[in-house]
Amino acid sequence: QASSVLLEAQGLCAWYGAAQALFDLHLQVGRGEAVALMGRNGAGKSTTLKALMGLLPRRAGRVCFLGRDCSQEAPFQRARAGLGYVPEERRIFTDLTVDENLEVGRQAPRHWPDGRPAPVWTPERLWTLFPHLEPMRSRPGGRMSGGEQQMLTLARTLMGQPLLVLLDEPSEGVAPVIVDQMAEMLRALKAEGVSVLLSEQNLGFAAEVCDRAYLLDEGRVRFEGTMAALLGEPALRRAHMGI
Ligand code: ATP
């Protein structure tokens, strides 16, 4: 498996001021995998994604992306290496149109570590993944619903040609119909070979998209295994997810 690991965290710790929020976290995401980071509010999901991206000032442990230690790299350097990040709060330019938002994110196509070309995202290709965005191409981002903005944030991240996308709770606060579209879109993304690490509280949504899961509680990994195994562990979910 070693050669197919794209992203790996070893002994990741993070703090907010003096308060430790993440304890000795180990995780791996393989090429073509969709992995869920589950847990209730405050479990440490967002913190994990931010630490992987290098966004937290106080952290310890190692992060390797594409087999290279990137622990000392700034977020933009990790992004440039092909690590995409879609934060929980939508980050679109409200005065720019959908088309313009996509152009802002555009990067040159990438290659996999083995030299093969990675999927290339163009606006035209994105419309097949996000058919609902196409009719809004000339609409300013500020005049879209929260779910649409979430889709646009992801579409713009894809214009950066990521090899792996960190996705923070895309289903939160989004209308059910958009959640369904989002699940479908993430499955399509995975089928294209893009790996995903999805932070999520919604077990049904995560199970539709992901093969494997890590369950976090109070900043620690409490379970690691297949989604099917997690679904078959009601006691674990009661203890650490409150469901
Ligand atoms: P949510 O669904 O609420 O985003 P989460 O699982 O992503 O939950 P985190 O946001 O990672 O959880 O929070 C983990 C812990 O770190 C919580 O105890 C939270 O209160 C704390 N925390 C998060 N952000 C900050 C911050 N900016 N300053 C101080 N503490 C924080």
Automatic annotation (TrEMBL):
Keywords: Amino-acid transport, ATP-binding, Cell membrane, Membrane, Nucleotide-binding, Transport. Belongs to the ABC transporter superfamily. This is ABC transporter ATP-binding protein. SMART domains: AAA. PROSITE patterns: ABC_TRANSPORTER_1, ABC_TRANSPORTER_2. Residues 7-243 form the ABC transporter domain. GO terms for molecular function: ATP binding. InterPro entries: AAA+_ATPase, ABC_transporter-like_ATP-bd, ABC_transporter-like_CS, BCAA_Transport_ATP-bd_LivF, P-loop_NTPase. It comes from Acidovorax lacteus. It comes from the Bacteria. Gene3D superfamilies: P-loop containing nucleotide triphosphate hydrolases (3.40.50.300).
